[in-house]
Amino acid sequence: MKIGDFAAKSGLSADTLRYYERIGLLPRTVRDAGGRRSYGMDDLAWAAFLRKLQAMDMPMRDRLEYSRLRAEGDATLRTRRKMLEAHRDALVARQAELAELVATLDAKIDHYIDMESGTQESFDDGGQTHDDRGSGIAPPRERSRRGASARA
Amino acid sequence: MKIGDFAAKSGLSADTLRYYERIGLLPRTVRDAGGRRSYGMDDLAWAAFLRKLQAMDMPMRDRLEYSRLRAEGDATLRTRRKMLEAHRDALVARQAELAELVATLDAKIDHYIDMESGTQESFDDGGQTHDDRGSGIAPPRERSRRGASARA
DNA sequence: GCTTGACCTGGAGCGCGCTCCAGAAAGTAG
DNA sequence: CTACTTTCTGGAGCGCGCTCCAGGTCAAGC
Q1: Chain A residue at shortest CA distance from B101
Q2: Which residues, in sequence order, are CB contacts of A6 under 8 Å at separation 6+?
Q3: Is the Cβ–Cβ distance between A108 and A123 less than 8 Å?
Q4: Which one is predicted more confidently, A133 or A61?
Q5: Which phi and psi (to 5°) does residue A75 adopt?
Q6: B70–A112 C-beta distance less than 8 A
Q7: CATH number for position B27
Q8: Is A115 inside any structural domain?
Q9: Residue A51, domain extent
Q10: In A, which residues are within 8 Å of B129 by CB distance?
């Protein structure tokens, strides 16, 4: 498969593919008689996995290291697994952080709703000058758990 | 409070604070007799909230728009609430995506463990050339739900 | 008064992760 | 064969979000 097709199938531009190869994210590609890059299905799977690592917010330097290790073969399996486990933990931590932030947002949204119905002053400090210290964040009343969707 | 103190308390550098003011993320600061910026507690609360928006991955353009709306006063309350609700939804979607990615990672980690114990070939394509289509992702065996922590 | 240090402004510089371009060569169609 | 398209390489450019710097002002301590 030539780079144009591969780009279409992988969702990465031809320029990006060449760039990734240059920096070592993709292995040196097999070339055809005329010097053009020739990609296989395995490359497609690897590109897809790279995109997942990116979607997980794994930093470029880590993706580079992972790629380098992969290129070294089976001897690096343990190291790679450790990297994935570490990143898994980071992801779980991020999920927890997001949950907290959603709660903050819910509280602030409720605060806004109060201000919209009444005729209060602005006072836009996040909706919780007093409480909010990462703990539980008790909703002011009970009308939270909504999204733009559930009211629009 | 002068910019140095404020920087220390807000966690943003003085340069960043001036930069934020320039681009409109922070309102034009009150100046003292000598022309120096003078910050109050309300600014501190706003800076903290801006950091939360950033931690939520709200794009800079949206934070700018939100700040601009806030500067316009109470007339924009509804609009701001809508923005927060929309971003709340984005956050919840991201949480779901992360949950999927964690599952992918778990599957791949298990795959690695298999390869480490046996003496298989490399075949590093993400650990699931066959399955994995965003659905459930059944763990190959039952030994998942670990982190770097739980084994190290 | 003098030194020291925090602060001011405008603008340059930077690291990241691409993205685009020029100029050449090779494959493909008619 | 010509014409067109794709790909090639090396390198420049870009948008973001700061970060740093020069050269100057102002305030406080000695």
Answers
A1: A56
A2: A17, A37, A39, A43, A44, A47
A3: no
A4: A61
A5: -60, -20
A6: no
A7: 1.10.1660.10
A8: no
A9: 1-57
A10: 45
Q: Is residue A6 part of a domain?
A: yes
Number of structural domains chain A divides into: 1
Q: What is the mean pLDDT of residues A114-137?
A: 53
* Closest-approach residue (CA) in chain A for B119: A74
Residues B3 and B61 in one domain: yes
Asked if A106 is an interface residue toward chain B (Cβ–Cβ < 8 A), one would say yes
d(CA A103, CA A110) in angstroms, rounded, equals: 11
Residue A34 lies in a domain: yes
Query: Are B52 and B108 part of one and the same domain?
Result: no
Residue A31 carries which side chain, given as an amino acid letter? R
Chain C bases having any atom below 7 Å from a protein CB: 6-9, 11, 16-21, 26-27
Residues B119, B150 within the same domain = yes
**Looking at the domain assignment, is residue A49 inside a domain?**
yes
pLDDT digits (tens, 9 = 90+) for B22-81: 999 999 999 999 999 999 999 999 999 999 999 999 999 999 999 999 999 999 999 999
Predicted confidence band of residue B121 (pLDDT cuts 50, 70, 90):
low
Closest-CA residue in chain A for B53? A101
Name the residues in A92-151 having a C-beta closer than 7 Å to nucleic acid strand D.
none
Query: Which residue's CA shows the smallest distance to C1' of C21?
Result: A15
Burial of B78 (0-12, 13-18, 19+ CB in 10 A): middle
